[in-house]
Amino acid sequence: MxxxxxxxxxxxxxxxxxxxxIVKWLKQKGEKVQKDEPLIEVSTDKVDTEVxxxxxxxxxxxxxxxxxxxxxxxxxxxxxxxxxxxxxxxxKPVLTTEKGKPQPIGNQAQNKLQPQQPLPTGSPLVPSFQxxxxxxAGVIRSSPLVKKMARDHGLNLNxxxxxxLYGRITKRDVLSFIASGGNxxxxxxxxxxxxxxxxxxTSKKDGQExxxxxxxxxxxxxxMRKLTAEHMLQSVKTSPHVTTTFExxxxxxxxxxxEIAESFIKEYGQKLTYTSFFIAAAIHALKKHPDMNASIDxxxxxxxxxxxxxxxxxxxxxxxxxxxxxxxxxxxxxIAQALGDLVDRARNKILNPDDITGGTFSITNPGMYxxxxxxxxxxxxxxxIMSIGAIVQRxxxxxxxxxxxxxxxxxxxxxxxxxxxxGGAKFLADVKGFLETYKSK
Length: 441
Description:
Layout: E1 6-9, E2 19-25, E3 32-33, E4 38-43, E5 48-52, E6 57-62, E7 69-71, E8 75-80, E9 94-96, E10 102-104, H1 108-111, H2 133-137, H3 144-152, H4 171-179, E11 203-205, E12 208-211, E13 214-216, H5 223-238, E14 241-249, H6 251-268, H7 274-288, E15 294-297, E16 300-303, E17 309-311, E18 313-315, E19 318-320, E20 323-324, H8 332-347, E21 361-364, E22 384-388, E23 392-398, E24 401-415, H9 421-436
Parallel strand pairs: 17-21, 21-22
Antiparallel strand pairs: 1-8, 2-4, 2-7, 3-6, 4-5, 6-8, 9-10, 11-12, 12-13, 14-24, 15-16, 17-20, 18-19, 22-24, 23-24
């Protein structure tokens, strides 16, 4: 390693991701780090992940504080061979965030923002830009930093096209909007939108906060939890949800699972779980029911060639849905390997942003916690999500005899704009048939 300082930059975070928020520095200034050792925990519109050290060395400078937002390729820190080496001075201008922390925002010559006076009310305007999808969802989706920039420069975010996940408006979107002269339209009438929910009225006494007489402790939502909340609200507003439920006999699957468990681990390096069978059943049914593997674009249907299965995984910061890509012809073993890899990386926070995008159908399994039945919310822009209930031993009649079999309730929640009750029932009937007649190869 030379005496020169090595920059620590925000790497590319996947298609459509231009920035990330620093959640936590895992190393402090002056500490020695190893190459590829996790250095920073960051959060984007798509995923929480870690940025690894590009080299071995000492962390001699930190330019981006926790809670600040940085752009892709922006220098966040410097490494050096010795803790005594003087790092370069920051070259980017500094913008103060809502928390009063410094944050670089890009090239000063390019990004010098000048507030503009609003046009007179009633001025005839023909905007040459697209309206943000956030305007149609009711609440404009953007970070506190972006909202502060808009306030400081007199911008109306209803007229800024968001490039982030689900139309979320990023800092880069605002800068591009201003650079293109979009701020000339700040006086244009905004598209009517549903106001954000009003703040709850609490009271304070002796330094404690109370809601309706009950003492509360206020804690900020994690970025992932906040984005999930926004996405779920948008989904309910977008799709008329319908759920149908079947009871599935898993006796055959249970016996096959036990018979091949040891050989499966040896061949594929993964433990065989019921979830792998459920995914295989969903793939089988999606091939027969392409409407369930589609999206709706106004009055048109987008049928998807690839079957990409999103599997909900609970982690400490919320729920994340990594995606098994191009699973059209996956064997049971290939499904288990792909699932095991994604779950492991999700829980260790080393997923890539691309790992959670492109899903065409989702599966959630609250049954692992004992839930017998659930009615999940569709993961937009998908049109279906399958839920798995708890597997319970129950008496059933087989050949006029009462026997004990493992049963579970499986549901399909679908978008009634595209799929009727008959279509949902037929889809789940094919899932049931696959599982109850499954033959190991």
